[in-house]
Amino acid sequence: MKLSIITVNLNNRVGLQKTIDSVVSQTFKDFEWIVIDGGSTDGSKELIEQYADHFAYWVSEPDKGIYNAMNKGIKVANGEYLLFLNSGDWLYGENILEECFAINRNANILYCDCVIKKGSTFVNRNYSDNLSFAELYDTSLCHQSTLIKAILLKDNLYDESLKIVSDWKFFLQKALEGRSFQHIDIPLSVYNLEGVSSINPDLLMDEKKNIGKCIVPSCILTDVDLINRLDKDWQLKEIMKYREKKRIYHKIITTTITFIRLLDKLISRKNGNQR
Question: Which among 23, 2, 58 has a CA at the least distance from the CA of 189?
């Protein structure tokens, strides 16, 4: 089996319905679907029971947080790759999984683009083919648009002591281990940011800072900090623009000089023949 989709839910019946609609309509069928509900009391359990035939496994019981719920899903998953599609998020079109798996893939982590929804606004988030460590450290990958080789997580479950950045920590660890990342240039999912504003920004920064110091060598952190400061001040972008302009100008000047020399030779020959 190529894929296990893991959906975590807690009291988000409306969002879960949106997620369900996007998954059951997929033309790609080589996947199993696992739903981990945290003991919802808003009718989510009844909705899950209504669609139970579509799930390989589901449970509705209290858990110790989102990463504990994800780890429950990881332990029972049988797919080659794992996709975490939380309630409220949805797949980008009924053919999107088919398109994704039609592409030659062999990396440990397949990261796709995504669409971010906040209110009535939709913003495309496109990643580069050559993912830099600085980019991974600063913004990470969209969890809902990333396919992860199951063996990587079964051997190293998400850190449940973290409340927000355990997936960010996992991606950094895999990059430092030299695991392979492959970009698939399609938007796999719509990431719904409604409700995400409740995340404590101070806790987010504290977790990232503490974990970064623990797992990332200090010399790399220094380089990342330098790149981020340059980028924030627009210095790096201006330098790159200048380098590109310099290359173009050099080519124009070189071509012009060559043309002038050729023209000079032709004129000299013409004058010589006239004499």
Answer: 23
- Find the radius of gyration of the CA atoms of the chain: 25
pTM of this prediction? 0.80
The token pair at 217 is: 């060598």
- Per-residue pLDDT tens for 51-83? 999 999 999 999 999 999 999 999 999 999 999
Q: CA of 113: how far to CAs of 8, 79, 182, in Å?
A: 21, 22, 12
Strand 57-60 with 81-84, pairing: unpaired
CATH code of the domain occupying 3-216: 3.90.550.10
Please report the pLDDT score of residue 197 as a whole number. Answer: 42
> 198 pLDDT exceeds 70?
no
* Domain definitions of the chain by residue range: 3-216, 234-275
In the predicted model, what is the mean pLDDT of the chain?
87
